[in-house]
Amino acid sequence: MTTTILCSTPRPGVAEIRFNRPHRLNAVIEALFRETLAALGDAERDRGIRVVVVTGEGRAFCVGADLKEHAKGERTAWQKREYLQLATEACERIHRLKKPVIAAVNGYALGAGAEMAINADFLLMAQGARIGFPETSIGTFIGGGLTHVLPRLVGLAKARELVFLGERIDGNEAKAIGLATAAFPDASFRNDVYAFAERLAAQAPLSIALAKEQLNRAAERAYDTALVTELEGVLACMMTRDWQEGIDAFAAKRKPLFRGE
Questions:
Q1: Residues 52 and 176 in one domain
Q2: What is the DSSP letter of 159?
Q3: Is 35 a catalytic site residue?
Q4: Is the same domain home to 196 and 212?
Q5: Which of the residues 35, 135, 167, 173 is marked catalytic?
Q6: Which of 16, 35, 57, 115 is catalytic?
Q7: Which domain does 94 fall in, by range?
Q8: Which residue of 123, 242, 251, 252 sits 20 to 30 Å from the alpha carbon of 40, by its own alpha carbon?
Q9: What's the confidence (pLDDT) of residue 165?
Q10: Are 205 and 258 in contact (CB under 8 A)?
């Protein structure tokens, strides 16, 4: 039983992790991070799951830290570090999960919420949603690999603007600058997200896992290294049943049915 997230399988092969503190706009506390980490681990181990969708209950995706909890001043120095470590682990887990992760930003995504969202493989936003990094306006600092991921998505100049000014942008602007993969109408957002997820779930899962790992590590690899790792990736795929299924389906002019084997 969980209290801060809701887990479901709304479509075949698609797991949904829904932040469930709508009374606080899904602001994060330690339990939310822990339960999210556990749910991500469960989804990765479940061979029937091909795609993970992370979203929020109510009118927000996640507005970041629960400042009421911070304001109480009850955490020890160790507990503060533990909270920050959990936040880091949640972003890293999303980033490194062996299955594609979609951040379905249905409303406000701020601070730690925005950091989790940009670590996903695909950031899908409702046109009326808002995303931003307000840390400099409250005297704290960004985290979750933001200084590595954000410039790769939008370029250094735009990353500076978003971080230094802390302004919130809507789905259309996020799409225009390359931060979001797509911006869908608010009224059809959920259906559009799951149509996208179903297309992704139909792809070969072993191929997707290899592609995710290598694309995420591209910035730290030389071109010659990429050539070698890609070659090894192709050879690895050629030894799978899915590779043969892809060949057979192409020859028969039908859609392949991949099993992750």
A1: yes
A2: H
A3: no
A4: no
A5: 135
A6: 115
A7: 5-201
A8: 242
A9: 97
A10: yes
